[in-house]
């Protein structure tokens, strides 16, 4: 961090105020002009002091959002400023550990000795200093590596309704990706889910090169918001050391909901679905900190819950605009047992053309066309109204359906290797092209009508729609 950035954060800390009232989750303090983001302590008559964050001002009063419950706070309690800038202790010793938003170990093992210190909220790298993203990051997920390849330093969203497989997909990436370091932020999950994720989805193998930052749903909103900054700060630390970091945030929607709680408590006006403007200001600030810097890369995946599978959900909408791609998990695929339920046709990796060879791109395009052709005719095919021969692309899509599924499906315990997956894709696309070619080629002595229907006459050709 630069000296000027450090100086900006230095402020006198001998400041005291007193609690005059509480409103919902917040306490309001008089004579306490601490800046937004500062950390303060409320001294209760009984019990240890309560930590709280300054979230705003109203009518000469400073609004404080506690980091734990407001129990026992009374009018007149003394408030003391602790610090105006927030730091986090970091080091390689964090690998394999589970910590909370403040950076304290919560996995029952001793607190790690951490040699370095970084700020929670750092400025994103300057736009012009950012090198272009030009190398793929193998995620270990075949459907993504082949059809939606992402680059080192790219930011993507995993969008879906509840229970379609976002967390399991992120867990697979943590285990199978070849990134040097993985940082996972579990924000707003239930406590039981966190344990399940760490023990079942991640396992000891996944945990070894991973740092897990946890803020469960019962923790105060400021802590849940902070967890995202903590995870990003740790990812930045490893990126500064030249690592290729994979940052997985589950879920950014719960982060946005926590910021909405804080915004409403600070008196912000609610907009769409009660989200306050600060939510939409904070999302890009968080996401912009990731990406490629001259030293290393942070490739980030954010899980986005789309309530009732509604694609106009405001957080999903905002995220789609900020990210370099989105992966849509479909409930229809999941209900058929097609996992990971990646809906390739609804998903997009904007940087894929920059990071794969032209052959790979073309092969992915061929498979996309087949998937699209099948989807467009699926209703007809399922009721038996589609006659083979009416459309060569659909014919190939039907014939290669199993192979395409074998490419896109993947068991939870199955690791996919990037080069092998790529080879599989190229072979499949080459076969598809060959089959399509042979279907298009006119049979010896055939006329033009027969060109698309090799074994039928024009009169026998089935209409595409049942009459
Ligand atoms: N790859 C997979 N293989 C088999 N089953 C899966 C797979 N992915 C998801 N599932 C099934 O879907 C369920 C929900 O998965 P998961 O918890 O990852 O969803 P989610 O989208 O994270 O849900 P939420 O929105 O509640 O966080 C799992 O309990 C499992 O039964
Ligand atoms: Mg989940």
Overview of the structural elements:
- Strand 14 and strand 15 form a beta hairpin.
- The strands form 3 sheets. Strands 8, 10, 11, 12, 13, 14, 15, 16 and 17 form a 9-stranded mixed sheet that branches. The protein has a 6-stranded antiparallel beta barrel with strand order 1-2-5-4-3-6.
- The chain has helices spanning 3-8, 142-147, 166-176, 191-207, 221-240, 252-265, 277-288, 314-322, 331-335, 352-355, 358-382, 392-399, 401-408, 418-440, and strands at 16-23, 26-30, 39-43, 50-58, 61-66, 78-83, 87-90, 97-100, 116-119, 155-160, 181-187, 210-215, 244-250, 291-292, 297-305, 325-328, 348-349.
- It starts with a helix and ends in a 27-residue tail after the last helix.
- The chain is of the alpha/beta class and 467 residues long.
- The longest helix is centred in the C-terminal third of the chain and has 25 residues, at 358-382.
- Adenosine-5'-triphosphate is lined by residues 160, 162-168, 305, 339-340, 412.
Estimated helix fraction: 25-40%
Tell how many strands the DSSP assignment holds: 17
Shape estimate: elongated
The Cα radius of gyration reads 27 Å
Question: Pairing-aware structural class of the strands and helices?
Answer: alpha/beta
Characteristic key phrases:
elongated; 20% strand; disordered C terminus; 6-stranded antiparallel barrel; binds adenosine-5'-triphosphate; binds magnesium ion; 17 strands; 9-stranded mixed beta sheet; alpha/beta; 467 residues
């Amino acid at each position: 961090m630069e000296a000027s950035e450090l100086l900006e954060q230095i402020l006198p800390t001998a400041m005291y105020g007193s609690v005059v009232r509480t409103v919902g989750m917040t306490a309001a303090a008089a004579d306490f002009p601490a800046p937004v983001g500062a950390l303060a302590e409320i001294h209760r008559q009984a019990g240890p002091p309560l930590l709280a964050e300054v979230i705003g001002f109203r009518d000469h009063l400073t609004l404080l959002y506690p980091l734990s419950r407001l129990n026992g706070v009374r009018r007149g309690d003394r408030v003391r400023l602790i610090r105006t800038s927030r730091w986090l202790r970091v080091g390689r010793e964090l690998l394999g550990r589970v910590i909370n938003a403040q950076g304290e170990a919560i996995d029952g093992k001793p607190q790690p000795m951490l040699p370095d210190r970084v700020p929670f909220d750092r400025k994103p790298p300057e736009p012009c200093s950012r090198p272009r993203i030009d190398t793929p990051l193998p995620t270990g997920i075949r459907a993504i590596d082949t059809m939606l390849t992402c680059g080192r330093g790219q930011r993507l969203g995993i969008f879906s309704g509840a229970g379609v497989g976002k967390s399991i997909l992120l867990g697979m990436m943590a285990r199978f990706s070849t990134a040097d370091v993985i940082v996972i932020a579990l924000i707003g999950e239930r406590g039981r889910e966190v344990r399940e994720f760490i023990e079942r989805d991640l396992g000891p193998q996944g945990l070894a090169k991973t740092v897990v930052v946890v803020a469960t749903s019962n923790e105060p909103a400021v802590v849940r918001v902070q967890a995202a900054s903590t995870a990003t700060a740790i990812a930045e630390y490893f990126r500064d050391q030249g690592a290729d970091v994979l940052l997985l945030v589950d879920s950014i929607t719960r982060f946005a909901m926590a910021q909405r709680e804080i915004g409403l408590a600070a008196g912000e006006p609610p907009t769409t679905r009660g989200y306050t403007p600060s939510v939409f200001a904070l999302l890009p600030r968080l996401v912009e900190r990731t990406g490629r810097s001259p030293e290393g890369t942070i490739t980030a995946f954010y899980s986005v819950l789309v309530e009732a599978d509604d694609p106009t959900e405001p957080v999903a909408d905002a995220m789609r605009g900020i990210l370099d791609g989105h992966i849509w998990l479909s409930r229809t695929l999941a209900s058929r047992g097609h996992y990971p339920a990646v809906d390739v046709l609804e998903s997009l990796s904007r940087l894929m053309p920059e990071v794969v060879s032209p052959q790979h791109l073309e092969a992915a395009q061929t498979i996309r066309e087949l998937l699209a052709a099948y989807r467009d005719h699926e209703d007809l095919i399922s009721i038996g109204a589609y006659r083979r021969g009416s459309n060569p692309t659909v014919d190939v899509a039907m014939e290669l359906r199993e192979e395409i599924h074998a490419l896109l499906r993947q068991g939870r315990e199955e690791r996919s290797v990037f080069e092998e997956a790529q080879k599989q894709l190229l072979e499949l696309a080459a076969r598809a092209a060959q089959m399509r070619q042979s279907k298009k080629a006119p049979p010896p002595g055939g006329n033009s009508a027969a060109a698309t229907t090799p074994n039928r006459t024009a009169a026998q050709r089935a209409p595409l729609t049942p009459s």
